[in-house]
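Sequence of C2H2-type domain-containing protein (Durusdinium trenchii).
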Amino acid sequence: MWYFVRQGDEITQKEQCIESLGMKAKVDVDPDMRSALTSEDGLLRPGALPKVSGASAAGSKALLQAITSGVAAPKKKKKEEEEEEAKEVEPQTWVEKANALLPDILKEASEGRKLSIKLNGMEFAEELSKDLLSHAGELEDCYKKLATKVGEGNGKVIKAYVNTANELMTKGSKAQAGKTTCLKSYRKRRRLEDLPDSQTVKKFADLIGRGKMSIDAAATIARSVVRQAVHKTIARLMAWSMEVASSGVGPDTGFAGEPLAKTSRGHLCGQQLGCGWRACFFAFKADLKARHELHNFKRYYRCNEFCDRCLAMQGTRCPPALDYRNVTNSSAWHLTAINHQAYMEFDASSLSHWVCMPGFNFLAISFDWMHNVYLGTGRDLCASGIMVLIEKGLVGDVEGVEMDEALSRVHRRMRDVCRQHGLVLPAKPNLTNANLTGEDGYFSMGTRFKATHIKRMLWWLAKESQELADQNPTDAVLNVLAMCTFALQRCTELMDLSGVIFSEDEAQEAGNSLKLHLRAYFWLAAYHYQRRQLLFKTRSKTHYNEHIADEVLRFRINPATYQNFEEEAFLGRIKAIGIHCHGRSCTRRLYQRYLLTLAVFLEDHERVARQV
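Predicted 3D structure, token representation.
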């Protein structure tokens, strides 16, 4: 460890303080008199008087003062102050209160006028500037009347004017603070008075004006209310579209009941749509956050009762039988599965907005395999598996080697093996200790590693762990790790090679492989937890994978159908375009540029096709 000491300040001659004192005295003395006094027989001859000196500089100074100014008088001792008797405090009269308040009224009025002038001409501040100017005028009138009444000396009248002045100042300060904060927080947005008339807006305005609620708290509640209303409206719109698509006939009226006969879609009224094909509701796919927000789930991944499909629990206070980590035969959460009928009755107070969708079923709200595995448990498995392989000697002896160097060897080996089998693994992000350590200390791949990276790394991990386990058949950890990774990889292969619906054999193999993977993963987590090693973290997504396995065995639907790879890629493309658009016209320009990009892409495709 190195300690760095700051260099001392350099002292130059200019920074030194030099003090000097010179004394010069001139006295006209008669030479004969001086000779008579200082001669060998004189009174002031050397040695005639006693020598007097001080023990310190302070003593010498006091002696000199005593000789030059006479006998030094001792300092007078201060008389002890007599204890003052407590006096009764007399209340101020209304005239005194008014005299104390008059300067404050004048100051408040001048501040209001100054702020009004500053805001004059500013965008969206005309109303605020007028209010402040009017408030300053009211204070000035109150000041004149109060000053006049003080001169008259009428206490009752002065009391009324003082109370009026206090109310004006309190009202003005609250309104000024509230409106100024609102202007700063929501710059270049519509004023609260311009919003549509509704009870919610009136309530928020009243609470903010009376100081009962801050601007931030009101904005948070308002966003929640608006978000729920938007989700509900979108669900109703999609339900209306599904009704039209399932009927196969063009509608006569729109979503809001408006007639469509005289619009651009009027030629579709009563006509056959989609060449006779009809649509139906199949499933709803989204990540865990969207499932919670769009379906108004009260039990989600941040709660103790976190599962919407059963009554499994997480946390330190949950019953052992309902603990999601309990995968033995004694677990009770297996017996608490919730179907569509139970959901409609059990959660009747917080039903999904999508219950209005024709054909909606609670079990059709699927789990996203990409977020649950590749961006969830797969990250934990990949990072923990790499640490186990390093410990077991995958890259040779690492004693005395830095962790980043060992991870760099693993990364080079990983890329070489993937390249040999036709898989491309990017050189960046690199495998480093910082990229593999999470916030809670558990080893997990960082957010820089995307879902496609994790998918290829899991394939490599399954291959390497199997080869290393074959060389060490008595090593329990290596064999369980090989079983865990192979079972997950086999389930992934079946998903990639199959269609939307599994066959009977494929469904049995995929579901059982996923269950085997989960059992092996829990064994590895318990093994390292007993040894106080932060490997193979168990999280709520691990439990959700249990429901995926059960649904594969029951419905035979391929979980790859619910993956959000295309949706996430589309958002990435939209983001790349949107960051180059102006904020005011972002929505319109974004879609214009996106359509232009598609047109260029199709034009290039047609040109290549003509050349071929």
